[in-house]
Each structure stands twice: as C-alpha cells, then as structure tokens.
Amino acid sequence: MLSPLALTVWLATAPSPDFLEVRQVGSDHQVLATGGLLYRWTGRGALSLEAELGAPMAALHTCEGRRSVAVGPRGRMRMSLPGGLGWRPVPLEGAKDLWAVDSASCAQVLAVGEEGALWEGSLEEAEPRFRRLPSPTRLPLYGVAVAQARAVVVGAGGTVLARRGAAAPFEVVASGTEAPLLAVTWVDGERFVVAGAGGLWLGEGASLRQVLADEQDVFTRVVFSDRTTGVALGQDRLFTTTDGGQTWRPMAIAGALSVVPLSGPRFLVVGREGLWRYIEVTPPEPSGAPVHAPARTAPVETAKPAAPPKPAAPTPSEVKDVPAPAVRKDMPPPVEERCRLKLEKQHMREGFVDLKTAVGGTFVASGDGTVRRVEGNELKIAHRTGEPMLGVAVSQEGVLVTVTGWGALASSENGGRSFRTVRAPSDTAFFAGAYAGDALLVFDARGQGWRSGEGGTFQPVSLPRQVTYYGLSFVDALRGYASGECGTLLETADGGRSWKVLGTPMKKDISGVLAFGDTVYLSGSEGVFRSGDRGRTFKQVLDEKQGCIRLARRGPEVAVACHRGLHYAPEGETFSLVPVPHQSALLAAAFLPSGELGAVGARELFIRAQPTGGAIVNRSPAVERWLKLSEQWQLELRREAPKSPPKVVTVQAPAKVPGN
User: Fold this and answer.
1) What are the tens digits of pLDDT across the range 466-487?
2) What are the structural domains, with CATH classification, of the chain?
3) pTM above 0.70, yes or no
4) Closest CA to 216 of 624, 599, 628, 563
5) CB of 371 within 8 A of CB of 364?
6) How far apart are CA 112 and CA 119, in angstroms?
C-alpha cells in the first residue's frame, strides 16, 4: 500500500529532493526527504544533511519538540537518540507498512498502518517497546492525531476510529463516506478535521460533516496552528481556513506535501522538487465570500425540459417565511400552447432522470434507454427498452414498479427483480407516473392522462388542463396530486378518475409534487413550497435561486434535487445544502435503503451522501486519481536511497505569499 503523506511524490529526477515532511525540533526544523534522507533547517537559506535513515520512510513526527520518530514501509520505525547523537531502529515484531505517527508526549506514541495496525509505545525507555492494540478494522490506516488521552485514526473505505481515553478501546465512527481518508488533525480538544479523496470533513464527537467537496482533488495533509487557523493540502491547490475549518479558501500552490506552522499567521509549505514556500493565513476581506466547494466546471445543461433558474452564484439555502397566499382566482385556460413543451427525443438521451426504491432495490430511469439498479456505487443495467426513460413509479408496498419513458414503459410486478417492456398510451414523453393503490396513472408531455384498469389496459382520464406534466404523487388509493407547466396543480379524490385544478403561488413549471397526510410539497424553478392543508395555502421553504426538480421523503425528512444542489430538511421545513461534489444539474433525489441520500442528474451522475456530507460519486475523479497515485507510490517505495545524497540543499528565500 501507499503513504498518504507522500503519495504524490513526483517520480522524475529533480535537482532538489522531494520534501515529504517538515517538523519543528526545538528552535530548528527537521525535513524528511525521499530515500530516507533527513535534513535540518536552522531558519537560514540552506538545509544540511543530518542523517541517512537507510530506507525510504513515509512519516516523521517530533514529540515535545525534542525527540523524533520516523515510520515507513515493511514496519520500519526509527527514533532519534538524545542529544542528536544519531538514530536507532525500533523493533516492531510482525509489523507491516506504517504510514503515520503522532503523540501526546514522548511516553505515548501511536503509529498506524496496514491491516488496521495500531502500535503504541514510549520513546522514554532505554529499550523502547511498542505493543499492537486491538483494532476494529483490517483496512489500511493512513492518518492519526493524538491529543492528551484522546486519539482519532483515519483510513481506507472512509474509516474513522476514535479513542476517548488512554485506557479506552478504539471504536468505529460513522464517516458517511467510503472515500479513502488520508490525514487528520485536532482543531481543539473536541473538534478535528479529516482530509481525504474528494474533500475535507469536520468532526466532533461521533459525527462528521463535510465542509469542502472537490471531486477532482485528493487532500493528503491538514494542519492547524490554533483553534481557528489551518491549512489543507490538495494536489492542485492548498486551502486555508480562519474559522476553525467551517469554510475554506483556495490558494494557487501545487505540489505541496507537508506544512508546518511558524509564528503568528505564517506557515511553511514544502513539497515536490524542493518546494519551499511561506504563506500567511489571514481572514478574508469583508467583501470576500468563503469558498465551500470550489467550482471546477460550468453548470451542465440538463435533460429535463424545465425552465432554467435565473443566473446567480450558488448560495446556501434560504428559508423564506412568507405569508401563505390565497388560492389564485386567475386560473389559466385549459389549453395554452406555451404550456405544452415541444420536446425532441434526441435531447433526452443523456443523463439519469429519476430514481425510487422498491422491494427489489433502488431503480434509476436513464435517458440512454435503460433501467438501472443501484448496487453500491455502481448502476447496473436491469432492463433495456431502447427509448429514453424519464420517471419511476413505485406502489406503496414497493412491489409494483413502472419506469416511464418516451412511448415506452418498463413494468415489474415483483419489486423490480424483473421487467418487461410495454407500449405507453401515446408516443411522446412520460415524466409523470404514480400508483393509486394497484392502479397506475401516467400523464404525458402533451397534457393527456391515463389510468390502468382490468388486465392492465389504459383508459383515458379527462384532465381540466392540457399542459406538460412532470409529477404525480398519491397519499393513498384515492387522494393524489399532479403537477406540470404554467403553475399547474391538480387534485383527485377518487383514485385519479376525475381531477380539479388547485391554485398555487407558482406561475412557471411545477417540476415535482410530493404528498403525504395533509402535507403537499411543490418544487420548480421558483423554489419549493409547502402546504399543511392539502394544497389550499402554501408557504415558500426554499428560495427561487435553486431551480428545483424532484422531491423525496422518509418520515418527516424531505430532500429535493435542484439545479444548484441537493437540499435536505430533517423536519420538512428548514432546508440546508448538502455538501456534494456536484452542485449543479441534479434532477431527482431519493432516500436509499442504506439510510443515505441518493441523487441523479445530467451526464449519468449518481451521488450517495449523508445529509451532513461525505458523498460518493460514481466514477469519482478523486478516487480514480488516488488509485493512480497509489500505483506510482508503490514504485517509489522500491527505490533504493541515493548513494551520494546532497549534503546541502539551498531552499528558496522566504518570499512572502500575499494572505488570502
């Protein structure tokens, strides 16, 4: 396996060695370089070779500013002798690759590595001895942070372990992600920050919350100088915080591998090819907006024919407590051509458009003519129709499933374990479908509706408005709602046989409708509205900047997929933005059987996330990047130390980088 602290070592020959770690020792600093070389920096313009450790090492740590310990592949551990008289090996019987080390004091040192290894011991004894602690995981562990009697360890597969006392065992903490977590540091006695593939997480107690999501980058180091000021290192940029890790701002420095606090707001950053930079971390100007999730690409055009939101910078959700409007008196005419969109099939071919859960799994309607089944992070093809699939309907028992599409339906009577293709009632787009008991209702883009009868045959339903319909939702076998273009909301009380128009505060598209009990939610380009009286009056609960599409619920919890992110309300009224790598072009949300949120969108995007963050994206570039870097580092670890290492390395003058 690989060292997360040096996983990005540049493999090309360079005039200066790669600096993997920098640590303060007394008034000086020690710098660990590739090949197991250890240099000392006294604060002037050159490094002098202090020791050759004899083999590549992955991590360096100093305890109490006076003793040093290094760990690396094949269970190697080296410790410095008192008075700087050299280094000696520390035997660890049966140890395999070690990737990180930290301590609260020289009498309590903790090293972690492969197969969930936790090695603890003291450097104070004449013959230091380390013992292997019981571990609740066999996955590789990449980062460790110790603060007095407490410790946090992170590793592969989203592993987070915590120990709350010196004699307490390590316990698993739910991280909400399966991404490799590579580094961790304490902010104060209660909070810690975790770095990994795809972002940064802020932890407190037994919970983690993702505070920065970047699906392109791998974060390998995070350091704080005090309880507010910190630096995190990615491959392309580093990020700084001045509010304890709540928000992060980027700085254009690539190739950084380690960072250490100096004095005040100054940090020293070292890395590839002798990178040696000073930075100052200061609070932003009042006009500067904090960066939560840096933009990587422009928003993507969605396959959903909904009115786009007004251009605006992504912002967290705002709840507007506006007076509930009365029922509109100016009802739109039954037929108005502008309310029936002219759609073209070729524009429906890309993207995942809807998802819902049945007894046989969670199913996704895909524009490429397939029905997908969610299996972990992958979406396996469960059925092919050859026509763009645009919506998913599931009965309340989860046994009946119909995926609606362009002139075609994929039907299942066994919870999605098998499907068959049937012809839809018309040859156009069907976004809207729902079950009223065992009866299936489907509405098309031309404003027509049908209800299944005996033998599964469809009977036309008379609708009071002919518009493009997007959503259907039933409370029970009798009462339900349909939504569509031009602020259209219909209600039925007889299982979909007859419908009437309800007034709403929305004048544009109503892309989603969700009904349960007396509660009705509407979503669209004007935001999200909630009614507690069966759709008679509404209150806006998510602003119009978001441009929302489809809704989902689990008990009182509600989630909505929007053009500007995935939003979640634990009690159904106060929405917050879920930190996920993609904050645009989401089309549908669902609560997965695992307890996570699921979301799909344009360009075959599928996201799993906890409401507090920790997202997994199918084919995540960050995870793919991590795997490639892992392979490179395996090669680096097999290289022998240089026979004639440079005795002196000149470093860059302490040029000041403007604070951000």
Assistant:
1) 999 999 999 999 999 999 999 9
2) 30-133 (2.40.10.500), 150-282+620-639 (2.130.10.10), 346-619 (2.130.10.10)
3) no
4) 624
5) yes
6) 6
